[in-house]
Amino acid sequence: MGKTRLEAFSDGVIAIAVSFWQPWIAATIYALVAAVWLVPDRRIERILANEET
To answer: Which sequence ranges are marked TM in the entry (predicted)?
Structure first.
């Protein structure tokens, strides 16, 4: 699911535009963007794992 910040930002902009038409679709998009930010970045995990050893 490796989205970049620009992709997440554009999803937010799309959600704002869609919210005028179908608010429940916009809420779903917002939830998906939030879920992307909750998933740990593999690069950060790799760096932290290397520092622990």
So the answer is: 20-39
